[in-house]
Fold each of these.
Amino acid sequence: MSWQQHLTQSVRLRKGLAATYSWIKLPLIIGAPMRVMSGPELAVAISLAGGIGFIGPGETPDSTAVDLEAARAILEPQSDNGVLPIGVGFQLWNGSLSSAVAAVSRHRPAAAWLFAPRDGQADINEWTTQLRAAQPIQIWLQVGTLAEALSAAESSSPPDVLVIQGAEAGGHGRAIDGTGFITLLPEVADALRSRYPNTNIALLAAGGIADGRGVAAALSLGAAGAVMGTRFLASKEARIKKGYQDEVVRATDGGGNTVRTQLYNHLRGTYGWPKEWSPRTVVNRSWNEEREGVAFDELRTRHDELVKQGGGKAWGPDGRTATYAGAGVGLVKSVDAAGDIVMGARAEAVDILKALHCVTWSEDCTGNEF
Ligand SMILES: Cc1cc2nc3c(=O)[nH]c(=O)nc-3n(C[C@H](O)[C@H](O)[C@H](O)COP(=O)(O)O)c2cc1C
């Protein structure tokens, strides 16, 4: 398929999303369902700015219903036939399908975002089938490899949207080195379109997008929209500790200062993640000392002591605890209102695409701005 056909198809799918989610403005910006950090205030602010905000999985499976209830309380006047103009994320390997079904039936979010099954496509099929039976909900699935994307598309319960998560992504992603969405998204698009030329599965790009430049890049690759996670950690509405947020704003050079490692999960006492996933985090003393050979038990003692002291010392270069964030962390320079982040990235992407059009294609450009 030629690039023109790909773009025509992605424009068709973009229009499909606009028809499904009546409040959105294009180009579409999505707020990722970051565990705990993406609470109701953040999700609602993103959607009210014309994006789609997702509530992340909570501390426990039952937290989701509480968060959706809070979102409904903020949104009530704007809710569209009872459907909340936000989505909700579920982490399958340790989630509760019965809690998810109850929360979705009761609160009717516009989309459910699935991630990280323990038992591959079989788990995804079960969640998809039961959620759709509970409520006619759009199913979004986040994948990090071509194989996962094809297995979902070929399954008995294909998703409505595939979020193509590149290796730069913050939080959990594929534990293997992986690839950025710059290669993964077009490869998935090629494979899907050649097998299913009329597919209605929209592709979204995630991983390292923090401003309009990333959004424009995603659209150029044929994405129907762009997902941002790390950028929204530095939003006024994020449910995040100040020390953590300060470190997201301070950290630079994600290529050198972020890694995927289970170390910080284990320091925080989180075990059980399926081996396919590992979280990207900003490094600090725990990581450096592990490299130097300090034993895990000693690292955990030092970690726990520092966390106990409070006051934000646990984060930063001299800190010891998890600062889950993406390789694009160096692009995040300030804490802003989520709505301003959405509108700013959208406007910047449009300006970039117009400017590129002007310098590369149009014979009518006056050249005034160049
Ligand atoms: C702190 C943090 C927590 C995350 N938690 C989840 C999660 O619970 N479920 C999920 O599907 N994705 C989660 N993600 C990954 C996002 O869905 C998304 O892929 C990622 O944020 C995109 O890359 P970016 O952070 O570079 O924007 C998380 C990301 C971050 C930064």
Amino acid sequence: MSTNSLSDLDLQIASLSVHADDSYAMVSDVAPPLHVSTTYHYNSDPSKLKSAKEHDIRVRDEQSSFIYSRFGNPVVERVEAVLSAILNGHAVVYSSGLAAYTAALAYYNPRRLSMTDGYQGCHGVARIFNRFSGLEQVPLYDDSVSTGDLVHLETPINPTGLSVDLAKAVEFAHCRGAKVIVDATFAPPPLQDPFEFGVDMVMHSATKYLGGHSDLLAGVLVTKDPQVRLALLQDRGLLGGAPGNFESWLLLRSLRTFKLRVETQAKNAGKIVAWLDSAIKNNEIPALTKVYHSSLQTDEFVRKQLKTGLYSPAFSIEVESVEVAKSIPSRLKLFHHATSLGGVESLIEWRAMSDTSVPETLLRLSIGVEDADDLIADLKAALLSFSAK
Ligand SMILES: Cc1ncc(COP(=O)(O)O)c(C=O)c1O
């Protein structure tokens, strides 16, 4: 359910993250309980019982009780109330980002998928759909895009953190009768709201910034259309992509501090990128050759999309050789060498380990909530250690 008693108030993200699910509390506890049951008692009043022919058991309305956890449970509903409020639409939650993406492709069932570069897993899901339905993958702005097709934009893009022009792609797609889905994982609110540019669906890997603690897998699709939400819930009830009860509870708990975390991470990243950029321009660190980040793009659309002046907390650098790229993680003290992003702890990844599409000199950084100056000092010492040979 995405309606709640606070909907008349003009609350901001920080308040919504804490209160958008208040009306879903069943007892008086302040912290939401974890419900582990997979099945729920039917109504003990025989006159209230409805057969499956009379109502859709996959979609709970306010009058009916919970039935079976795959169709909905109290924790998932609370998470969806918060995510609907902060992501500015009707949110449907899944067991991972890729489960959400799979659900989106199953719902739109396009003939052609026109895609930006970006997270390789989404390209992999599209290849599986090619086996099911013959789905054809074509580049962004391909001339073949037409009615019934889907344009998939990722912005900012994984792993570079560079932005693509949403307004331009939406105009291209809608003129041709195609729909647009945006994977906005790299810039969650308040950094960016893709709905402002007329996109049809927004997706996030909630494993990243929404979860924010590297301890849960989840994904979310967001739509402005209540009928699409209904169809997604019906599909989810059958495809089985519902999130686990415990993961949903962890996500709900994490969302309480969502804005604090994301803003701190984005501010830290901005400071670190500015330092890296000036170090390259002043030739201070010979081993460092490139830094990629939306904050360094000069295109006007970037400022319109990331209008708060904060940019993705994840970005990439390139260094002088593959050997240096492989060695840097082990010379850092405050960054874990690990894949993924969005958690409170800073990560760095020699990206070639998990992505075949990038140069082997590229490292992806995911900035956490540590002190930015400490992170800069750590990076500086590691990067300079290669010129002291
Ligand atoms: C941009 C992006 N989209 C989607 C995903 C997939 O999300 P998940 O790992 O939660 O399935 C990822 C994972 O890294 C990602 O970076």
